[in-house]
Structures are given as C-alpha cells and as structure tokens.
Design a protein that fits this description.
The chain is α/β, with parallel strands linked by helices and 503 residues long. The chain is built from nine helices and 27 strands. It has an eight-stranded parallel beta barrel with strand order 2-5-8-9-10-11-12-13, surrounded by five helices. It has a six-stranded antiparallel sheet with strand order 16-20-21-27-23-24, with helices on one face. The longest helix is centred in the middle third of the chain and has 28 residues. Bound molecules: alpha-L-arabinofuranose.
Length: 503
C-alpha cells in the first residue's frame, strides 16, 4: 500500500494485484449513508409530507428513494449526529398532530415538530431496501429510554413497547441490528471523558441486550474524533468485548475549522489541504486499527467510520446552521480516495457513513423544491458499488507525487476487488489537478479477457452539477487503456476517478 513518504520515481506506476485467497470481503456497509435532523436533510429533503405536490410515498420523496435505491445503499444512520443526544424517540410516535414540538438546539435553533419519527424512518428504510442504523440518546436520555426503543422496534412478543408499536399501526417488529450508543460523547454528546463514557457505555450496552448479545444487535460505541487515539485505547481496554460490536471514528476533511473555505471557489492551496485531510484517513484507520488489534487480535470488533466527508462554508444566503454546500469534482476525488482507503482496510473497517445523504455537507443528493440533482459524489458511490461485498484484492505500488508549494501527497490511489460472479473491479483516483498519471497493472494472474471502464471527470476541477445544469458531471465510458502481454496500461487524466471492470 502507498504511504505519503514513499513515492514512485518512474514515469509509469507499476501496480501488482494480489489474488490472495485469505483477503477479506469488503463489507457492503462501508457504503453507508447518514440522515440527521439537520437543515434540509429530513424536512424539505427526504420528507416533504404526504400533502406535498412532490410525488411521495407516505411523505417520502419518490425521486430520492429511486436515486438511493440505484446506489444500493446498505445502511442509513439516523437521527444524528449531535441531534441524536437531544432526541427522545417517544416524541416521534403516535398521531402526528399530538406529537410535541422541540427546539433543534444544535442545528439552527429551528422548531422540530417531530412529524418524522421512528415509524417514518424505519418504513422509509424498507422503501429504500436499506438497513437502519439508529443512534441512541446517551447525552440527555436514560438507559430505560434506549432499552424501550430497542423493545419497541425489535420485540415480536407481548410487551408494553410492542403493544404500543401495534397501537401505532405496526404489528411486525423491524428488527433493527445497528445501534449507536450515543454520538461524539467527547463533544456534543455530553463532553464526557473517555473513562466516563466507557462506563456509561457498559451500562447502556448491558440493558439494551444481554451479555451474550443474543438480541442480534450490533452495539456501536461513540468513537474518536480524528487522531484521538487515547479515546479508542480507553474504550478497547475498558469495555468487555462481549458488549462491543463496533467502535466508531469521525473524520471530516476540513481545511481549518475557523476558515473552511468555499465549496466551489476554493484556491489551489485549499484544494491541496482538503486532499491532505482526506488522505489522512489512511493513517487514522491504520493507527486506530493497530490499537484495536492489541485488545482484539481476532478482529471481532468493527471499526465504523460513521461520519466522514468534506466540510466547507455554507452556500451564501443559506442558514449557517443548515450546513448546505455545493459538491464539485474535489468532492468526487475525496470520495473516491476515501473509499479506496476503506476498501483496502476491509479487515477492520466494516462500516462507514458519508455525511450526509441529502442537502447537508457532502451530500449525494441536493434538492430545490421539486427539483433534485445528483452530485459528483453520488456518481462515485454509484461507480464504486461494484465493491460491495466483493473480495478485496490487495495491491502493492508506489504512487507518483502530487506536489504543491513544496509539500507532496500520493497522486494516485487504487483499490481492487473480485465480485461473486468472478468479475474484477479496479478503482483508480488521480487527485493531481494538472497532471495525467500513467499506471501499469499486472493482470497476468487474474484470468481477465475483456476490460471496460467508466470515468468521472470534467473540464474544470471546480465544476459541479447545478439545478440549471444538473448533468454537467456524469460518468462516461473510458477507453484510454491498452492490454499487452498481461499488462493493463491506463492513463488516468488529472482530477479523475476511473473504475475498470475485467472479466
Ligand atoms: O454531520 C454533522 C455533525 O458533525 C454531526 O451532527 C456531528 O456528529 C458531527 O460533529
């Protein structure tokens, strides 16, 4: 695997793909998404209400459902984020007109009428054909409240919560597997220390299932922010493994929290910084995984990057608390490179959630009243879905450099997998904004007869899909490769993402 310190000096980068039988499967859950009660993600995003003139099913936009079904999204995290630790799920069940209103204190101080609640979300997941990932309230909730939520959503027998669920119109439980025990407990989830949170976690995790975890739940601990390795170490040391299904990690590619820069009119220096932060994910997952290996050498506990993506200043004229931003080729490259990192660490990274699905941060979908557009990031997710549940093919190569003002990053990132039908997919990213890069992939041992390709690029790095020009950036057929004597030679244009298929 490439590291930032080892660069290829050759004109052509040589890549060896290892058809290693022992390599892990890339969990489809790496391709997960996130929907928070934040800005226009749920309200005026996914959910327009059943009296809307926009085509909907029980208030959920049909066009969004179709677009996300095409991506085969494996899971969707809800209701937060920071919102999760202010959310009391019982506010969001029963007749909508009887539901209390609250103030969304984290995101714009807007009034939340709770018209989108547990039934709305879990039924929406059924429409999307995706698995729900519920984020429980630890910061301002109680153990009983979370235990009740699990019983409400999952228990098929007779119980107070299943009775209540039936009264609210749902007989069969949804059987939710993924449960987050709080969110960002070190910050908006309660400003806890790692030791304090580890104890809280043990208590919550005990009462929402049992010691043997026969409830079929995957309990996920609120994880570290970026390089807070002490957080991961403390959780891994202090939480019994029988209570721990996954440990989360959040990392946003932010230039500077005080000066995040424009989403579209970024400078070359800001572009470099964003890529630097995006590629830092390699170091983060390597180091967090190494800590986990110490306490869990059999790799039973998942590393779950349940918030990642680019974060810039909001679009001018929009509510600063709504985190609405445009999405350019920079975001496509960020997504492609990050997903390559996750794929290559599939032995430990088994789930991830891009922040966020609709109208917030690095969204795959943007809406404006009845209009909807698919962002460049959407197209990356669509191109990369071939890796879902495919067997990782480990790679060895040294990347050429992308240098800016004396600092260098690896220009090329790659991951490869073999799917259940035997097709091989290689995803290649060239983040260099000015230089094409040539790679040569040795495919002699892979039994490939035919190769085809798809590329995502554009005329300008700062291009994006707008409501006036929604299809400016779209995947195109890619043919700039040659196969000769078992070597696949590819020219990866500057700032482009390519997925090759070999059969
Ligand atoms: O995704 C936006 C916010 O970023 C989430 O609510 C929070 O968990 C993180 O800080």
């Amino acid at each position: 695997m490439t590291t930032a310190s080892v660069f290829s000096q050759e004109k052509t980068t040589k890549i060896t793909i290892n058809a290693d039988e022992k390599s892990p499967v890339i969990s489809k859950h790496i391709y997960g998404h996130f929907a928070e009660h934040l800005g226009r993600c749920i309200y005026d995003g996914f959910y327009v209400g059943d009296s809307s003139s926009i085509a909907n099913t029980d208030g959920i936009r049909n066009d969004i459902v179709e677009a996300l079904k095409e991506l085969q999204i494996p899971n969707l995290r809800w209701p937060g984020g920071c919102f999760a630790d202010t959310y009391h799920w019982k506010d969001g069940i029963g007749p909508k007109e009887d539901r209390p209103t609250i103030v969304n204190t984290w995101w714009g101080g807007v009034t939340e009428d709770n018209s989108f609640g547990t039934h709305d979300f879990l039924n929406m997941c059924e429409l999307l054909g995706t698995e729900p990932y519920l984020s429980g309230n630890v910061g301002s909730g109680t153990v009983q409240e979370l235990a009740d939520w699990v019983q409400y959503t999952n228990f098929g027998g007779i119980s107070p919560m299943s009775k209540l669920r039936e009264e609210n119109g749902r007989k069969e439980p949804w059987k939710v597997k993924f449960w987050g025990i709080g969110n960002e407990a070190w910050g908006c989830g309660g400003n806890m220390t790692a030791d304090y949170y580890a104890n809280e976690y043990r208590k919550y995790a005990t009462f929402i299932s049992d010691w043997e975890n026969t409830g079929g739940l995957l309990r996920i601990a609120s994880g570290a922010s970026s390089d807070d390795y002490n957080w991961t170490e403390t959780l891994m040391k202090n939480i019994p493994k029988s209570l721990l299904g996954g440990v989360a990690l959040h990392h946003y590619s932010v230039i500077d929290w005080k000066k995040k820069g424009d989403a579209v009119t970024f400078t070359d220096a800001q572009y470099f910084r964003t890529m630097e932060e995006a590629l830092k994910m390699e170091e983060l997952v390597t180091k967090h995984a190494a800590i986990m290996d110490k306490y869990d050498p059999k790799k039973k506990v998942d590393l779950i990057v349940d918030e990642w993506g680019g974060w810039y200043e909001v679009e001018k004229g929009t509510n600063p608390g709504f985190l609405y931003q445009q999405n350019t080729m920079r975001d496509a490259l960020l997504a492609g490179a990050t997903l390559n990192i996750f794929n290559n660490h599939a032995d430990r990274v088994r789930m991830a959630n891009l922040a966020q699905a609709v109208n917030v941060l690095q969204a795959v979908i943007l809406t404006d009243k009845a209009k909807m557009i698919l962002t460049p990031t959407y197209h990356i997710m669509n191109m990369y879905k071939v890796h879902q549940d495919a067997k990782l093919l480990p790679l060895a190569f040294e990347s050429p450099k992308y240098t800016f003002e004396g600092k260098s990053l690896p220009a090329v990132s790659v991951s490869a997998s073999k799917d259940k039908k035997g097709s091989i997919h290689v995803s290649l990213v060239n983040i260099d904004p000015t230089k094409d890069n040539e790679v040569e992939i040795d495919i002699t041992k892979l039994g490939i007869k035919n190769v085809s390709g798809t590329i995502l690029t554009s005329k300008n790095l700062r291009d994006y899909n707008s409501f006036d020009e929604p299809n400016k950036i779209e995947p195109q057929i890619f043919k700039k490769f040659k196969v000769k004597k078992g070597l696949l030679k590819v020219t990866i244009p500057a700032f482009s993402v390519i997925v090759l298929e070999g059969k």
